[in-house]
Specification:
The complex is a heterodimer of chains A (276) and B (116). Chain A is mainly beta and 276 residues long. Chain A has 3 helices and 15 strands. The longest helix of chain A is centred in the N-terminal third of the chain and has 12 residues. Chain B is of the alpha+beta class. Chain B contains 3 helices and 4 strands, in the order βββαααβ. Chain B starts with a strand and ends in a 12-residue tail after the last strand. Classes of the chains: A mainly beta (276), B alpha+beta (116). At the A-B interface, helix 1, strand 1, strand 2, strand 3 and strand 4 of A face strand 3, helix 1, helix 2, helix 3 and strand 4 of B. Strand 9 of chain A pairs antiparallel with strand 4 of chain B.
């Protein structure tokens, strides 16, 4: 857009983050004495539950030995909403030195990301109601009502951000009524909000190695007359390094500032020139 | 496939006796049930589709699955859920692999600055 093409895969990463939180759920089946008879890992799928149910009802082949293997969790991102309460100044910059610091001396930067709330719906499909309750009771205590994870969405510029995942609501559905052609489906539906950020393009700029600030005394200087150096104070800051690689604040002993690289052990040279 | 309902009188004594039955059938939903019918075709369903860790977990002599104090099952090294689940309706492995490079689990205690 606007002549720039970039891909941080932010939305894909948020989907992965959400899925990763729930991808390691087990349920136990116990004996009458409370011993663990069987432990099942619950498969997780990205996609709406309707797709799973449609596969049940409209099985295209009759070759399968069973209709479906349960329990199963499916989730999907349902909507995106701008969140004005988390918005920071758009002109704030996130900067990070290039990974090859010292050789190219570039800084990557990016403007403040935009906060968006991502709505997720998660469905838990089970055959036995006890399987459903055992899955839900393992999820719910972690959400108070938010569970926060640290996410590296754009590692080249931003560091890890804490992203809360908020549990909004839980509902259960047991379709046991109806005629005999209708299949029974036991579904728990959990609604979540992931408070993420979406990032614009990242750009590169050279490291600033010389900063010069000119203060003008207004009485005798015509506005816009930049060639007149009278009645000015010039403050210059630059790195200082001797030819032997020792940090210095002496401008006469230092090599040229553009020969100093970011990984050198440099000092600082501040010079003040008064033209009064 | 299993029978859900048998209608014994879809046609009520048309020829003086019951000529036919209506069977309402449904494909079986498998949810880790232990199958021991002696018929290989049916018993194989458990071997190929079960999500239970019985085969991969470490069992006691009484047939119970050993677990850690936290309740997680103790599983043998060769276990691979992707192979076990074995169908395209499973994203656990992909999510876990991709999530490792995105999620940062290093900060376990953000309040004590590592002092506790």
């Amino acid at each position: 857009m606007f002549g720039r093409t970039w891909n941080h895969d932010s939305l894909r990463k948020y989907i992965i983050v959400f899925g990763t939180v729930f991808n390691d759920i087990y349920i136990n089946r116990l004996s009458a004495t409370g011993e663990v008879l069987q432990t099942l890992k619950v498969p997780l799928t990205y996609g709406p539950k309707e797709k799973v149910l449609a596969r049940l009802d409209q099985n295209p082949t009759m070759d399968n030995q069973v209709a479906i293997v349960l329990p199963r969790i499916s989730f999907e991102m349902t909507s995106l909403e701008y969140d004005p309460t988390r918005k920071l100044n758009t002109l704030n910059k996130l900067t990070k030195q290039s990974a090859t610091a010292g050789t190219d001396d570039e800084v990557k930067y990016q403007y403040q990301p935009v906060p968006y709330d991502m709505q997720f719906e998660m469905s838990i499909l089970v055959k036995n109601s006890e399987d459903g309750t055992r899955i839900v009771e393992q999820i719910v205590p972690y959400f108070t009502p938010a569970f926060t994870v640290s996410v590296n969405v754009v590692p080249e510029v931003d560091s890890a951000r804490d992203i809360p995942i908020v549990l909004n609501s839980i509902s259960s559905q047991d379709q046991y009524e109806g005629n005999f052609e209708q299949r029974r489906a036991m579904i728990w539906t959990l609604s979540f909000t992931l408070k993420g950020y979406l990032y614009g393009p990242s750009k590169k700029s050279k490291l600033i190695k010389l900063a010069e600030t000119t203060f003008r005394l207004p009485e005798d200087v015509a506005i816009g007359n930049t060639t007149n150096t009278s009645n000015t104070i010039v403050v210059a800051s630059r790195p200082g390094l001797t030819a032997n690689g020792v940090a210095t604040s002496n401008v006469a002993a230092s090599i040229a500032y553009d020969e100093i690289i970011s990984t050198d052990n440099y000092g600082f040279i501040n010079t003040i020139t008064e033209n009064i | 496939m299993y029978v859900k309902y048998v209608n014994k009188t879809p046609v009520f004594y048309q020829m003086g006796s019951i000529q036919m039955y209506d069977l309402v059938c449904e494909m079986f939903e498998y949810s880790g049930e232990k199958l021991n019918t002696g018929i290989d075709t049916i018993d194989n369903i458990q071997r190929t589709l079960s999500l239970a860790l019985d085969v991969y977990g470490i069992m006691t002599t009484s047939g119970f699955l050993l677990s850690t104090q936290e309740g997680a099952p103790i599983i043998q090294g060769g276990y691979n859920f992707s192979t076990q689940a074995g169908d395209s309706f499973e994203d656990n492995t992909e999510l876990e692999t991709d999530g490792d490079s995105i999620l940062d689990w290093t900060q376990v205690d953000p309040f004590s600055e590592g002092q506790v």
